[in-house]
Amino acid sequence: MKIRILGSGTSSGVPRIGNDWGACDPTDPRNRRTRASVLVTTQTTTILIDTSPDMRAQLLAANVADVDAVIWTHDHADHTHGIDDLRQLMHNRGGEPVRGLARPFTLEQLQHKFHYAFFGRALYRPTIAIEPLPDSLIIGDIRITVADQPHGGITSAGLRFDSNVKSIGYATDFHEMTSIMRALYADLDVWVVDALRRAPHPTHPNLAQVLGWVGELQPRRAALVHMDQSMDYMGLAAELPAGVEPGFDGLEMLA
Protein backbone atom coordinates (compact mmCIF):
# COMPACT_ATOMS: atom_id res chain seq x y z
CA MET A 1 0.00 0.00 0.00
CA LYS A 2 1.23 3.49 -0.77
CA ILE A 3 0.03 7.07 -0.55
CA ARG A 4 0.76 9.65 -3.22
CA ILE A 5 0.55 13.31 -2.29
CA LEU A 6 -1.33 14.82 -5.21
CA GLY A 7 -1.39 18.32 -3.71
CA SER A 8 0.59 19.57 -0.71
CA GLY A 9 -0.62 23.17 -0.57
CA THR A 10 -3.15 25.20 1.32
CA SER A 11 -6.28 26.79 -0.15
CA SER A 12 -4.38 29.43 -2.12
CA GLY A 13 -1.63 27.09 -3.33
CA VAL A 14 2.02 28.09 -3.73
CA PRO A 15 2.74 30.45 -5.33
CA ARG A 16 -0.35 32.47 -4.56
CA ILE A 17 -1.94 34.44 -7.39
CA GLY A 18 0.30 37.41 -8.08
CA ASN A 19 3.34 35.11 -8.22
CA ASP A 20 3.67 35.40 -4.44
CA TRP A 21 6.15 32.77 -3.25
CA GLY A 22 6.46 34.18 0.26
CA ALA A 23 9.47 32.56 1.94
CA CYS A 24 9.51 29.66 -0.55
CA ASP A 25 12.37 29.40 -3.03
CA PRO A 26 10.76 29.59 -6.49
CA THR A 27 13.66 27.65 -8.06
CA ASP A 28 12.85 24.53 -6.01
CA PRO A 29 10.03 22.63 -7.76
CA ARG A 30 9.04 21.02 -4.45
CA ASN A 31 7.75 24.44 -3.36
CA ARG A 32 5.17 24.58 -6.16
CA ARG A 33 2.10 23.29 -4.32
CA THR A 34 -1.35 22.55 -5.66
CA ARG A 35 -4.39 22.19 -3.41
CA ALA A 36 -4.53 19.34 -0.90
CA SER A 37 -5.44 15.83 -2.05
CA VAL A 38 -3.97 12.33 -1.86
CA LEU A 39 -4.29 8.96 -3.55
CA VAL A 40 -4.10 5.68 -1.58
CA THR A 41 -3.41 2.57 -3.64
CA THR A 42 -2.58 -1.11 -3.59
CA GLN A 43 -2.03 -3.32 -6.63
CA THR A 44 -5.81 -3.76 -6.93
CA THR A 45 -7.44 -0.74 -5.26
CA THR A 46 -7.30 3.04 -5.86
CA ILE A 47 -8.94 5.55 -3.50
CA LEU A 48 -8.94 9.30 -4.14
CA ILE A 49 -9.24 11.65 -1.17
CA ASP A 50 -10.90 14.96 -2.08
CA THR A 51 -11.41 16.59 -5.46
CA SER A 52 -9.24 19.69 -5.34
CA PRO A 53 -9.54 22.48 -7.93
CA ASP A 54 -6.27 21.08 -9.36
CA MET A 55 -7.53 17.49 -9.66
CA ARG A 56 -7.28 17.20 -13.45
CA ALA A 57 -3.58 18.11 -13.48
CA GLN A 58 -2.94 15.97 -10.39
CA LEU A 59 -4.48 12.82 -11.90
CA LEU A 60 -2.70 13.39 -15.20
CA ALA A 61 0.62 13.63 -13.34
CA ALA A 62 -0.21 10.42 -11.44
CA ASN A 63 -1.37 8.66 -14.65
CA VAL A 64 -4.69 7.74 -13.03
CA ALA A 65 -7.78 7.34 -15.23
CA ASP A 66 -10.16 5.65 -12.78
CA VAL A 67 -10.64 5.11 -9.06
CA ASP A 68 -12.57 2.64 -6.94
CA ALA A 69 -13.95 5.44 -4.76
CA VAL A 70 -13.65 9.08 -3.82
CA ILE A 71 -13.78 10.10 -0.15
CA TRP A 72 -14.38 13.73 0.75
CA THR A 73 -12.91 14.90 4.04
CA HIS A 74 -15.18 17.99 4.16
CA ASP A 75 -16.96 20.44 1.87
CA HIS A 76 -14.54 23.39 1.67
CA ALA A 77 -13.80 24.72 -1.81
CA ASP A 78 -10.11 23.74 -1.93
CA HIS A 79 -11.12 20.11 -1.30
CA THR A 80 -14.19 19.87 -3.57
CA HIS A 81 -14.20 22.30 -6.49
CA GLY A 82 -12.53 19.91 -8.92
CA ILE A 83 -15.61 17.71 -8.70
CA ASP A 84 -16.61 18.35 -12.33
CA ASP A 85 -13.55 16.44 -13.53
CA LEU A 86 -15.02 13.23 -12.11
CA ARG A 87 -17.21 13.31 -15.22
CA GLN A 88 -14.24 12.15 -17.29
CA LEU A 89 -13.66 9.27 -14.87
CA MET A 90 -17.32 8.36 -15.31
CA HIS A 91 -16.81 8.30 -19.09
CA ASN A 92 -13.70 6.14 -18.62
CA ARG A 93 -15.94 3.70 -16.71
CA GLY A 94 -18.33 3.40 -19.63
CA GLY A 95 -20.89 5.73 -18.08
CA GLU A 96 -20.99 4.12 -14.63
CA PRO A 97 -21.05 6.80 -11.90
CA VAL A 98 -18.00 7.12 -9.67
CA ARG A 99 -18.54 5.86 -6.13
CA GLY A 100 -18.36 8.67 -3.58
CA LEU A 101 -18.40 8.71 0.21
CA ALA A 102 -18.74 11.54 2.72
CA ARG A 103 -19.90 12.12 6.27
CA PRO A 104 -23.60 13.11 6.37
CA PHE A 105 -23.14 16.89 6.72
CA THR A 106 -20.52 16.95 3.97
CA LEU A 107 -22.73 14.78 1.78
CA GLU A 108 -25.64 17.20 2.17
CA GLN A 109 -23.47 20.19 1.37
CA LEU A 110 -22.01 18.55 -1.73
CA GLN A 111 -25.44 17.60 -3.05
CA HIS A 112 -26.66 21.15 -2.45
CA LYS A 113 -23.71 22.82 -4.16
CA PHE A 114 -23.24 20.32 -7.00
CA HIS A 115 -26.77 18.94 -7.44
CA TYR A 116 -26.23 18.15 -11.12
CA ALA A 117 -23.22 15.91 -10.39
CA PHE A 118 -25.29 13.62 -8.19
CA PHE A 119 -28.72 13.78 -9.81
CA GLY A 120 -28.01 14.64 -13.45
CA ARG A 121 -29.51 17.40 -15.53
CA ALA A 122 -31.29 17.48 -18.91
CA LEU A 123 -29.21 15.21 -21.20
CA TYR A 124 -26.44 14.68 -18.60
CA ARG A 125 -26.46 11.58 -16.44
CA PRO A 126 -25.30 11.62 -12.81
CA THR A 127 -21.53 11.56 -12.42
CA ILE A 128 -21.31 10.35 -8.82
CA ALA A 129 -23.15 7.75 -6.75
CA ILE A 130 -22.63 9.06 -3.23
CA GLU A 131 -23.28 7.32 0.08
CA PRO A 132 -22.66 8.14 3.74
CA LEU A 133 -19.15 7.46 4.97
CA PRO A 134 -19.37 5.12 8.00
CA ASP A 135 -16.89 4.80 10.85
CA SER A 136 -15.37 1.74 9.20
CA LEU A 137 -15.60 0.06 5.81
CA ILE A 138 -13.61 -2.02 3.35
CA ILE A 139 -12.94 -0.98 -0.24
CA GLY A 140 -11.10 -3.62 -2.22
CA ASP A 141 -8.25 -4.81 -0.03
CA ILE A 142 -8.10 -1.66 2.11
CA ARG A 143 -9.86 -1.21 5.43
CA ILE A 144 -10.74 2.41 6.13
CA THR A 145 -11.41 3.78 9.61
CA VAL A 146 -12.81 7.27 10.13
CA ALA A 147 -12.82 9.82 12.96
CA ASP A 148 -14.47 13.24 13.00
CA GLN A 149 -11.92 16.02 13.49
CA PRO A 150 -12.66 19.55 14.79
CA HIS A 151 -12.12 22.08 12.01
CA GLY A 152 -13.38 25.47 13.04
CA GLY A 153 -17.18 25.31 13.12
CA ILE A 154 -17.40 21.99 11.23
CA THR A 155 -15.68 18.63 11.29
CA SER A 156 -13.48 16.91 8.73
CA ALA A 157 -13.00 13.18 8.25
CA GLY A 158 -9.72 11.86 9.57
CA LEU A 159 -8.76 8.66 7.75
CA ARG A 160 -6.76 5.53 8.49
CA PHE A 161 -6.03 2.91 5.82
CA ASP A 162 -4.95 -0.64 6.71
CA SER A 163 -3.93 -3.39 4.29
CA ASN A 164 -1.71 -6.45 4.76
CA VAL A 165 -0.62 -5.32 8.25
CA LYS A 166 0.50 -1.94 6.89
CA SER A 167 -1.13 1.34 7.88
CA ILE A 168 -1.38 4.89 6.56
CA GLY A 169 -3.05 7.87 8.22
CA TYR A 170 -4.24 11.07 6.55
CA ALA A 171 -5.09 14.03 8.77
CA THR A 172 -5.93 17.31 7.11
CA ASP A 173 -7.97 20.37 8.10
CA PHE A 174 -8.28 20.10 11.87
CA HIS A 175 -7.21 22.26 14.80
CA GLU A 176 -7.02 19.96 17.81
CA MET A 177 -6.16 16.35 18.58
CA THR A 178 -8.97 14.46 20.30
CA SER A 179 -8.73 11.11 22.07
CA ILE A 180 -10.59 9.45 19.18
CA MET A 181 -8.08 10.89 16.75
CA ARG A 182 -5.16 9.72 18.89
CA ALA A 183 -6.52 6.17 18.74
CA LEU A 184 -7.00 6.44 14.98
CA TYR A 185 -3.45 7.61 14.31
CA ALA A 186 -1.63 5.33 16.77
CA ASP A 187 0.93 2.83 15.44
CA LEU A 188 1.06 4.06 11.85
CA ASP A 189 3.65 3.18 9.24
CA VAL A 190 3.02 6.48 7.42
CA TRP A 191 1.25 9.62 8.62
CA VAL A 192 0.51 12.45 6.18
CA VAL A 193 -0.57 15.41 8.27
CA ASP A 194 -1.62 19.05 7.89
CA ALA A 195 1.02 21.54 9.09
CA LEU A 196 -0.14 24.86 7.68
CA ARG A 197 2.63 27.13 8.97
CA ARG A 198 4.79 27.96 11.98
CA ALA A 199 2.46 30.63 13.37
CA PRO A 200 -0.74 29.58 15.16
CA HIS A 201 -3.95 29.36 13.16
CA PRO A 202 -7.53 29.00 14.46
CA THR A 203 -8.58 26.08 12.23
CA HIS A 204 -5.35 24.32 11.22
CA PRO A 205 -2.43 22.91 13.20
CA ASN A 206 0.89 24.71 13.21
CA LEU A 207 4.30 23.08 12.90
CA ALA A 208 5.06 22.91 16.64
CA GLN A 209 1.74 21.20 17.36
CA VAL A 210 2.28 18.62 14.64
CA LEU A 211 5.81 17.81 15.78
CA GLY A 212 4.47 17.36 19.30
CA TRP A 213 1.86 14.89 18.06
CA VAL A 214 4.44 13.05 15.95
CA GLY A 215 6.57 12.68 19.07
CA GLU A 216 3.58 11.37 20.99
CA LEU A 217 2.11 9.02 18.35
CA GLN A 218 5.44 7.83 16.92
CA PRO A 219 4.55 7.04 13.29
CA ARG A 220 7.43 5.31 11.54
CA ARG A 221 7.42 8.03 8.87
CA ALA A 222 5.56 11.34 8.62
CA ALA A 223 5.12 13.94 5.88
CA LEU A 224 3.73 17.45 6.22
CA VAL A 225 1.10 18.82 3.82
CA HIS A 226 -1.43 21.66 3.46
CA MET A 227 1.49 24.08 3.76
CA ASP A 228 1.39 27.77 2.89
CA GLN A 229 3.97 30.05 1.27
CA SER A 230 5.90 30.53 4.52
CA MET A 231 7.04 26.88 4.56
CA ASP A 232 10.10 26.57 2.32
CA TYR A 233 10.96 22.95 1.50
CA MET A 234 14.72 23.08 2.14
CA GLY A 235 14.34 25.24 5.23
CA LEU A 236 11.90 22.73 6.70
CA ALA A 237 13.96 19.71 5.70
CA ALA A 238 16.96 21.14 7.55
CA GLU A 239 15.08 21.56 10.84
CA LEU A 240 12.71 18.58 10.99
CA PRO A 241 13.58 15.58 13.17
CA ALA A 242 14.44 12.19 11.75
CA GLY A 243 11.44 10.43 10.24
CA VAL A 244 9.59 13.67 9.42
CA GLU A 245 9.81 15.38 6.04
CA PRO A 246 8.07 18.12 4.08
CA GLY A 247 5.63 16.65 1.62
CA PHE A 248 5.55 17.80 -1.99
CA ASP A 249 3.33 17.26 -4.99
CA GLY A 250 4.06 13.82 -6.42
CA LEU A 251 5.75 12.35 -3.35
CA GLU A 252 4.91 8.64 -2.97
CA MET A 253 5.34 6.86 0.35
CA LEU A 254 5.21 3.09 0.84
CA ALA A 255 3.69 1.77 4.05
From TrEMBL:
Pfam families tied to this protein: Lactamase_B_2
UniProt entry tagged with the keyword Hydrolase: yes
Q: Which UniProt keywords apply?
A: Hydrolase
Q: What is the lineage of its organism?
A: Bacteria, Pseudomonadati, Pseudomonadota, Alphaproteobacteria, Sphingomonadales
Recorded coiled-coil stretches: none
Q: Does the keyword Hydrolase apply?
A: yes
**Matches recorded under InterPro entries:** Metallo-B-lactamas (IPR001279), RibonucZ/Hydroxyglut_hydro (IPR036866)
| Name this polypeptide is given | MBL fold metallo-hydrolase
The molecular function terms of the Gene Ontology recorded here are:
hydrolase activity
Q: Where is the Metallo-beta-lactamase domain?
A: 34-204
